[in-house]
Design a protein that fits this description.
The chain is an alpha/beta fold. It is built from eleven helices and 13 strands.
Length: 280
C-alpha cells in the first residue's frame, strides 16, 4: 500500500518520511479522530485537548472520522472543533465548519440492499448477538454486528469471535458480488461501512487542494482508517504528502512536539533572514 514511502519509526509511530522536510510553510495537517481518543472512544483527554488546540491555532488543521458529527461533538471539545479549518464526518461524506454543515454527499440506498444486509445479519453465527446497529448516513450505511449500544467488553468479545470465524470477510465477499456499484470495507474491527462507488474519500484531498493550493498534506491516521474507509486517500498521501500510522493520542502528541520544534526553528530562521521585517 505504501510502496513509495520511506519508513521511519518514531517511538511506536511508523510512517512515510518526506525528503522535503524543510518545506513546511504551507503544510496542512489532517487528523483521524480515532487517533485522538484513547481505546477508540470517549472524550479527548483534557491535557491533550489543550495541546492539540494550541497547535491547531498555529497551523491549518482538518479532522476526519468515520463517525457522525454528533459523535464527534461528544468526543472533541467545542474549542478544539472550532480551531479546525474543517471537519470531515461520516467517512468524508459530510464537511463541517464551525459546527455548521457546509456540504454533504447524498445517496438513496435501494430496498434490495437493505434486505440483503438484514438477511446476512440474521444469518450471523455469533452465539451472543444482540440487535445489530445500522447507522444510516446521507451516503453511508454502517453495520455493527456487536449490537446496538454494545459495551466495550461486548465489542471485544465479538471481535475475538470474529477473528476466529472470519464471518465479516465472507459477508463482504458476497456483498461485492451482489452489489458491485457499492464499496464495502471494515470500518472498525466489529463493523462494516457501505458507500456508493460514486463517492470517494479523495474528495477530502480535493477540498484541501482547492482551498490551500499546493499545500502538502501531513496525515496522522490509525491503521484501521488507513486500510478501511480512507484507504484511497491514504494511498494518495503516501506518494504526495506525509502519512504516519499512529496508535493513539500519545503518538500524536509526540509527533506534534516534533512539529512544534520545527515551527520554532523555522521562525528563528525567518528572523535571521529578515530581521527588519520581523521588528516591524
Amino acid at each position: 500500500m505504501f510502496s513509495k514511502a520511506q519508513l521511519k519509526t518514531v517511538g511506536r509511530v511508523t510512517g512515510p518520511v518526506d525528503n522535503r522536510m524543510n518545506v513546511t510553510s504551507n503544510d496542512v495537517y489532517l487528523f483521524d479522530m480515532a487517533t485522538l481518543v484513547e481505546n477508540g472512544g470517549g472524550e479527548i483527554e483534557p491535557a491533550f485537548a489543550s495541546y492539540l488546540l494550541d497547535f491547531a491555532r498555529q497551523r491549518t488543521c482538518y479532522l476526519i472520522s468515520h463517525a457522525g458529527y454528533t459523535d464527534i461533538m461528544s468526543c472533541v471539545p467545542a474549542q478544539v472543533r472550532r480551531a479546525f479549518t474543517g471537519i470531515f464526518a461520516v467517512s468524508g461524506t459530510e464537511h463541517w465548519y464551525q459546527d455548521d454543515l457546509v456540504h454533504q454527499f447524498e445517496h438513496e440506498f435501494s430496498d434490495d440492499l437493505y434486505e440483503f444486509v438484514v438477511k446476512m445479519v440474521q444469518m450471523s453465527g455469533y452465539p451472543e448477538k444482540l440487535a445489530p446497529s445500522l447507522d444510516s448516513g446521507s451516503a453511508s450505511l454502517g453495520i455493527c454486528l456487536a449490537g446496538t449500544n454494545a459495551t466495550r467488553r461486548q465489542k471485544r468479545k465479538y471481535v475475538n469471535w470474529e477473528l476466529q470465524h472470519q464471518e465479516l470477510s465472507g459477508f463482504m465477499d458476497e456483498f461485492r458480488v451482489r452489489f458491485p456499484e457499492y464499496s464495502i470495507c471494515r470500518d472498525t474491527d466489529a463493523s462494516l461501512l457501505i458507500t456508493p462507488s460514486s463517492f470517494s474519500p479523495l474528495t477530502v484531498r480535493d477540498h484541501i487542494s482547492d482551498n490551500h493550493g499546493s499545500a502538502r498534506i501531513v496525515g496522522y491516521v490509525s491503521q484501521g482508517t488507513a486500510y478501511g474507509f480512507a484507504k484511497p486517500l491514504c494511498q494518495d498521501l503516501s506518494g504526495a504528502g506525509i502519512l504516519s500510522l499512529v496508535e493513539g493520542a500519545g503518538d500524536v502528541a509526540q509527533l506534534l512536539s516534533y512539529e512544534k520544534r520545527r515551527l520554532s526553528l523555522e521562525e528563528q530562521a525567518e528572523i535571521v533572514r529578515f530581521p527588519l521585517l520581523k521588528e516591524i
